[in-house]
Each structure stands twice: as structure tokens, then as C-alpha cells.
Here is the input.
Amino acid sequence: MNRSKIAGIGYYVPERVVTNNDLIKVMDTTDEWIQERTGIRERRYGVKHEETTTTMAAAAARIACERAGIQPEEIDFIVFATLSPDYYFPGCGVLLQRELGITKQEVGAVDIRNQCSGFVYALSIADQFVKTGTYKNVLVVGSEMHSMGLDFSTRGRNVTVIFGDGAGAVILQPSDDPNRGILTTKLHSNGTYAEKLSFINPGAHGGYHKKHMEEEVDYGYPSPDTYGEIFITPKMIADGNYYPNMEGQFVFKMAVSKFPEVIHEALNELGLQASDIDMLIPHQANLRISQFVQKTLRLRDDQVWNNIQKYGNTTAASVPIALCEAWEAGKIKEGDLVCLAAFGSGFTWASALIRW
Ligand code: ACO
Here is the structure.
């Protein structure tokens, strides 16, 4: 079986920089609090009503195509990871196809809803298609326009200060060198704690899962015989119950245990050690989480790429943005062992080992 390799990579972040001090103007927070707990100094926000998850993805994809030496028309499958899609449906995969002007080809497109681990899942799915010879140029994208869906009042401060907008993309192609490319991917999930990091409204749950929620919240559903007004009720809007929700400390504890676990799982399969990693690209969840993982794996600073300070947490986009930045900075060279790892809502977590 062939291996697949990353033939081209690109990223896009919006121009508008939003510093911690900018957030202080709208909510009760401080630069010190944000930097101390998360490492974040600033993040980017897209231009409202002009930029979307799809347009940012297209910008990143065009760069990836150019670097892979292909035209967008040559893409034969699209895998799109996001938790902030332009529409509830259809997904961003088809919107990206339209944005890139490649609808004539009518190639397949799929959306991946795995939040922070979305890109590594998407890469693994694309890898299966390329390895088996099904497709030759798969576009894999992670993109998020978080700024359109955050609570900018003090109530949302624990979540809102963390997230930023951006997109990253790669073109996956068959590798002509059997020793180069994606060596392995590991994917895991555990839905037990689904609500600990979630964005549940609007949704079709109708309150069904309330047994899994810490507090019982009255969403103002109409009587059980009534359909409609289930996705979003007037009461949800009045109460502001349509924002992401996170139990930060719980997420932190799970993340610092699952990141090393899934990295070791991939290394063990190949008989490698953590010290063999030339560059670890962790999902940029929180600088403290990345530092904890680095310490656990006993990696030097030059073996780990962090850019959350500049971009915040861009969820599905964070791994490809960081990978691209590290590569552009000359920190990833041919033959290097690159490890991607992510953990997030679901919970889902994943790793990938790539011989560059
Ligand atoms: N500014 C000022 N104060 C704040 C803010 C803020 N932005 N947010 C919360 N606080 C306050 C709280 O109200 C609380 O006040 P209280 O003690 O008076 O009640 C206090 O700070 C401590 O709140 P905690 O939530 O306990 O703070 P914690 O030290 O856990 O830090 C954080 C919160 C940064 C979210 C942390 O738990 C964390 O990093 N968790 C990991 C989750 C994560 O990284 N999520 C990213 C998205 S998920 C992913 O990508 C994996």
C-alpha cells in the first residue's frame, strides 16, 4: 500500500488583531489573567459579513494548492473540519468547493465535526483514501470563525478570551518514497463527558440529554406534543443560552493525560521514542497544556511549536496553522519526524506521525 504525504500546506489568519486589552473594553477580565492561565496575548477576528469559515479556508487552500503544484480543479476530494460552519447545513465542504470554483468536477466533499481534534481526524480519513489509491489530491482543511459565536459579556469570559479565527489546509498526495509521509494516525473518543465542552443550542436534543448535565436548565421548550421551536426557543434567546460552554479545569485534566497517551500510542506502534520527535505540533488549546505535555515527554523547546500567544485557540485550524508556520520558519525539514496531536470536545483525541 502507498503512503500519503503532505504535498502542499497553507494557512490564513484575518488581519484584525484583537488584544487582551481590547477584550477588557467589553468584559470584566485582565491581560494578566488571560496570559497567566492561557498564554494568549492576542487573537485574530475575521471581518464580519465578509469573511467566513469557508472564505478563510479557501484562502488557505489556494496557498496549499500552489505549493503542491496543482490547480484547485485537480482536487479530487475535500475533507473539511470545523465547529463553526457557515450554515447548520449544508456543510462547509461543498461551500468551499463552490468558493474555489471547482463545482464542474463534482468531486466528493465531507465535513468532520470533531472540534479540536477535527484536523487530525480529517487528515487520517484523507490518508485512508490516498493510501488505498482512491484519490490523488485530497484537500484537508481546518477552519474556524469563532468570533461570530462567542458571548462577549462577562458571563462568557472563561470561554471567549480563549478562541480566535483562522484556517489551515494541506494537499495530501501519494508518496513516491515508501519511507516518507504519514506513518500512522491514532483516533479516540469517549462521549461520557460530551457536555463538559459543548455548544448544544441550537440543537434538536429537546432537553433529552439533561440527565448528563450538571444543572437542570429550563430552555422554555413548548409542550412535548408540539414540534418546532426545538432548535432554538425564545427563552434560550432571552437567557443567552446559545453559546459554547466549558468546564475548564475538567477539560484541562483530561487533556494533559490524553495528549501524552495518544502520542505514545503512535510512537510505540513504530518502535520510536518521544526523543525521536523532531517537531511536536500540539493543538493550541492552552499554552499551559502544551507546556505540561512537553514536560511529560521531556522535549526541548525547539521540539515543540506554540503560537497560541498570537492566535488564541483556533480549534480545528490550530494544528495546520502551527504546522505551516513551523515549516515556513524552516523548523521542519525533509526527513524530520513530525508529530501532530490534539484533544478536545467530545471528548475526542488523536495523533499523527509524519516522516516529512
Ligand atoms: N478573566 C478574569 N477572570 C476569569 C476569566 C477571565 N477571562 N474567566 C474566568 N475567570 C474567573 C472565574 O470566574 C473564577 O472566579 P471565582 O474564583 O471568583 O469564581 C476564576 O477566574 C477561576 O476560574 P476557573 O475557571 O477555575 O479558572 P482556571 O484556572 O481553571 O482557568 C481556563 C480557566 C483557562 C479555561 C482553564 O481551566 C483551562 O485552561 N482549561 C483547559 C481548557 C482549555 O484549554 N480549553 C480550550 C478549549 S478546549 C480545547 O481546545 C482542548
Remarks:
- The first helix runs from residue 20 to 24.
